[in-house]
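Dear U.,

For the methods section draft, I wanted the exact inputs and outputs in one place so we can describe them consistently. I've listed the two proteins in the order they'll appear in the manuscript figures. Please don't edit the token lines directly; just add comments below if something needs changing.

First protein:
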Amino acid sequence: MPVKQSLVLDGEKDELVKISGILGKGNGVSDAKTLAALKSHCEAERRRRERINAHFATLRDLVPSNEKMDKATLLAEVISQVKQMKKTAACASEGLHIPMDHDEVKVEEFNENQGNDTKTFSFKASLCSDYRPDLLSDLRQSIDDLPVKLLRAEISTLRSRVKSVFFLTASEEGPEARDVLINSVHSALSNILDKVSASTQYSQSFFPRKRSRASYFHS
């Protein structure tokens, strides 16, 4: 019985190879289409591997090392360095109030220089979220509704993110009253964050996200 030779894709060699088989009733047009499809797939696979190898070459140039690393070791080293850079960036930006990617509300005591005044205590409250047109007015209204005095505010933006930090003071009425007040401030800011999050989810469903300029100011 006649023997038929066919072309198949060798995944390891990334090329077409011939195999033999028993010849039956075939279709020359179908064989031609199959061959064209295999060649197209082979070429696409070759280009894909070239791109991957080019990216790995770039990573090797970026990662300082005296030893040649295989791909798995290289990726592990890149992941380790990216984590370290994120940690370093977070530490460096801690005092700069740079908006981060995640939403956050924080209220903590702050040792503002008030001389020998023991009748008041100071703390700072911060909110990090997406920017919305009514965000600042909501924040100001919440601060005004609380039994606190605003010492100053520092607000920074990065693209569509904004971080608002308020330095506050209040009458010292004991540890329990202090905890109640801090919890009240945290709750007020959390309610605003919930409103911002809901508004952001709604707007992203209908409109593309707009980016704002990076800026920093205080009052």
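Second protein (the one for the lower panel):
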Amino acid sequence: MRLLLGLLFLLALTTYSSATYCLCRDGIEEKDLQTSIDYACGVLKDCNQIHDKGPCYQPNTVKSHCDWAVNTYFQRFGQISGSCNFSGTATTSQNPPSTVVTGCIYPSSPGAGTTPTTGTPSGTQPFQGPPAFGPVGVLDPSGNSASSLFISIALTLGFSVIAFL
């Protein structure tokens, strides 16, 4: 009986992952991907990770750099509904990009990294993109990740109590 409860306990711990990434879609023209990079980096004000000698510079492709920029933007804005759209160039995924190299960190939870700042870096022009760029929507704290986390914690505590009886 304890073995069965132990297995159920492990199952409760391993079945749900709340990781959500924002990645650029395949098949999008490079100029559109670059527009997404420019917008995200203009808001983030820190895209040194994907500059030459940065930990996420390799692979040196527009798609890879776009993945990092839009994901970092998405995470810093708390995974707000609509903040992974970028005029249709990006979408959410439960998996990180397959091109991640050692040393490159792809945050997978809201608020990862520093707090976003507003304005534009000195010497650059603000991006005048379409209204669909960036966050469009509201944060819904009753979404799947919050309820799944609660359920996972409840199951873990419940099985722990039963296992020690």
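Candidate sentences for the figure legend, describing the second protein: Confidence is low (pLDDT under 50) at residues 113-148. Strands lie at 21-24, 90-93.

Thanks,
Y.
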